[in-house]
Amino acid sequence: MKQLRIDIPLYPFMAALVPVLLYYNTQAVTEVPADALLLPCAVVLAMTFLVYALPCIILRLAKPLPEPDKHGPIDVAADWIRIWALWIAQAWMVFFSLSFCIELNGLCTAFNLPFSPLPVMPMLLPYVFLLVFAIAVLPILARRPLPLMSSIMSQLFSLLLLTQIGATTWYFTRAEFIIKPRAEAIQQAEILGIPQSTAQSTAQSTAQSTERNLTRSTSESNTQKIPQSSANSLDIYYIILDEMASSDVLTQYVNYDDAWFRKALEERGFFVTRNSRSNYPLTRLSLSSSLNMMYLDKFADVTGVNSPDFTTTAVLMRNHAVGKVLKKNNYEYIHIDSSVPPSNGSDISSRLIHCGFIDQFSERLIRSTLLALSPQAMAALRQHTRETILQQFAASGQIAAQTPHSKNVFVFNHILCPHEPFLFDADGKPVFNEGSRHLLHWSSDTTAAYAAQAKFALTKTIATIDSILNASHQSGRKPLIIIQGDHGTHCSDYVSSSKPSTDLLHERFGILNAYLVPDEIRSQLTHQTTPVNSFRIVLRTLFDLNLPNLEEKQIYATYERPFAFKDVSSQVQQQNPKIVRKN
Length: 583
Fold this sequence. Notes:
single chain; alpha/beta; Alkaline Phosphatase, subunit A; 22 helices; disordered C terminus
């Protein structure tokens, strides 16, 4: 008897991809570059191949005999392949059921609907699972509708997949061919197109700096530039400790004294600012500003002042001016993967060093699946995050030890610590505190957890600095190290507040800001220097660039409207009041 052909439906692969793309398009597309999709898409496709396609191929090669029937031969293998395809597709839908709840809740919130599905979902899930079970059993009892059912499922998932691919493609095209060229044009006009200056033009430009920096600027114009040969021997390390607050914030809001850390830095030759503040309260805005040496007002119209779209910041962080200037001056740019998009990658780095294999987007995607119900799976994710952070701290010292003498390097290392979740105690032992609140304030447990993780981060930072210094000394190199927080804490209120309290402004903008730099650069630093001017001072001194200091400002914005800027400098820079906190 002639063997009947067995077709293997492809819609289970589509069922695996649709939830991943849907979660990305609804939860992350304006914040996370599209390359974050590569890992989760590859994983679900590989799992579908192993669980679905491989057994089907084996069944296909086994060539089972058809079963006779009065209406003609019934291909048993084809029926079971169709049933297996239906089961696998259903399994993916059930696996991602929590993410569908999250997306539905977000849809209701976006359209201001007077209904929140999350509270009722736990009651509805048993009925949903019962319906899924019925659909799974029905094809076994009645096989005749299987071809029609398979055709409907193929068409349905094809439509869903095309819709999601279309949305992802549009956002990618918009980011790469609309937003990126506009952002880079501003970057070119403001920074990259600036020619080298003469001593006279530098003196004139510094004389035009703000009145607050007039005295310091005068000394800048009289400072002798570092010889080019000396500049070329400097390795530059830019280390960001996410949410590392300033000493006064740690003391007044968190009840932690970091005097030992400041003393350790000063003993190693660092200049530690006493009153430095960040320029923005959000990581993406802060790093976009410091890495491009400019305020972001000119970028507000790229996506719109009232838009929640962070795409512009991804472009600025992955194609920043500091890296471009240093590469132009023969520096090798080494980017350490932060695991947090978009600073987990770079479009312009010479080398990308991975410290983990799961980024923050993939982690959040996993937490939106049924794996979130498994304590073991969640514990494994937390342990992976701990190991990633530890490897990030170690990476800078390892680079210093491995760098050839002929290479001068720029190393960028954004470490998600002491930012929540709090995974380390003060001694580096594993703990877990996600960051709970009591009304607007952090709870007392959360405050204590931040203080402990901050001490851990500062301890690891000293160890990292010592590794860099020792390795550099052995190889005869000179490191230039900048260590900053991107923003401070938010234990007194939510950063999403459109009318921030004085407390929130003081603690959110107060940051760690320390420099190990040559004397020619150190003489230009003040205790009020902010990150927007850090690399302006460094690069104009090293390469004689016409980059005068900008006014030291603090600009507030929220996650909901990141480019709706509000100048809060006068509130932030006033004397910090004594705080009496209640938990």
